[in-house]
């Protein structure tokens, strides 16, 4: 998705959530600098977009949300058929079931020891910078390998914007942008009543954004 197409949606989200774009941009610049430092090293710590595209393009993708229902949903899935994308906290549930995701889309507020373990076992980390996770970026990015950076604000040369707002819908946008053959969702509950009012708003936006992508897929 071109940023010019995403920006009007982003502005609506900022207005609705009462977020300040300035902080998103500061966080993106921090992540950009951290990735530049990692890129200077001789080990493959920063992943190029082409690697993510090769992982996804032309393949059936399973996007795993972190709703409580995921524990039941995974019982009915043949994971060998899919490229598996975990939305942040879904990683822990998958690992407990013996499944290492191929890609983790994260703003770093899940169980980072679990995510780092999956990363050590080959999972690509799609790390997102937003207004209130600068401390997490500083703490976690240095220990991660095979990282690509994303933002919901204007993209930078090494921090991309594939579209999306929450971990779950960003996972769907990523799969779509990278040319997935199909996208299947498990572990999503947009009507979860056992969440905060802020989370309810985020779930509302996640549902809208995913419907946007899945409508194109259809």
Q: Which structural category do the helix and sheet elements fall into?
A: alpha/beta
By oligomeric state, this entry counts as single chain
- The portion of residues forming beta strands comes to 5-15%
Rg, nearest Å: 16 Å
| Order of strands across the main sheet | 6-5-4-3-2-1-7
Shape: globular
* Major sheet: 7 strands, parallel
Bin the helical content.
Answer: 40-55%
Provide a descriptive summary of the structure in words.
It is a single chain. The chain has a 7-stranded parallel sheet with strand order 6-5-4-3-2-1-7, with helices on both faces. The protein is of the alpha/beta class and 218 residues long. The mean pLDDT is 95. The longest helix is centred in the C-terminal third of the chain and has 21 residues, at 197-217. The two termini are 17 Å apart. It is globular, with a radius of gyration of 16 Å. It has helices spanning 3-17, 21-39, 49-56, 70-73, 90-96, 112-120, 134-140, 167-177, 197-217, and strands at 60-64, 83-87, 103-106, 124-129, 147-151, 159-160, 182-186. The protein has one domain (3-217). The protein is built from 9 helices and 7 strands; from the N terminus they run αααβαβαβαβαββαβα.
List the defining traits of the structure above.
single chain; 218 residues; alpha/beta; seven-stranded parallel beta sheet; 9 helices; 7 strands; 15% strand
């Amino acid at each position: 998705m071109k940023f010019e197409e995403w920006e009007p949606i982003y502005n609506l989200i900022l207005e609705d959530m009462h977020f300040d774009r300035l902080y998103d941009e500061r966080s993106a610049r921090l992540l950009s600098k951290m990735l530049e430092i990692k890129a200077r090293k001789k080990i493959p710590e920063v992943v190029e977009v082409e690697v993510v595209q090769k992982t996804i393009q032309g393949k059936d993708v399973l996007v795993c949300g972190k709703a409580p229902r995921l524990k039941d949903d995974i019982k009915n899935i043949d994971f060998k058929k899919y490229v598996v994308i975990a939305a942040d906290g879904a990683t822990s549930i998958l690992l407990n079931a013996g499944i290492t995701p191929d890609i983790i889309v994260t703003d770093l507020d899940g169980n980072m020891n679990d995510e780092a373990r999956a990363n050590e076992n080959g999972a690509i980390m799609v790390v997102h910078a937003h207004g209130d996770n600068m401390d997490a970026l500083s703490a976690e990015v240095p220990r991660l390998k095979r990282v690509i950076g994303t933002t919901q604000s204007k993209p930078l040369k090494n921090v991309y914007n594939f579209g999306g707002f929450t971990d779950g819908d960003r996972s769907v946008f990523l799969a779509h942008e990278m040319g997935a053959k199909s996208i299947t969702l498990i572990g999503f509950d947009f009507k979860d009543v056992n969440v905060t009012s802020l989370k309810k708003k985020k779930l509302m936006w996640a549902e809208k954004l995913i419907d946007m992508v899945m409508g194109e897929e259809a």
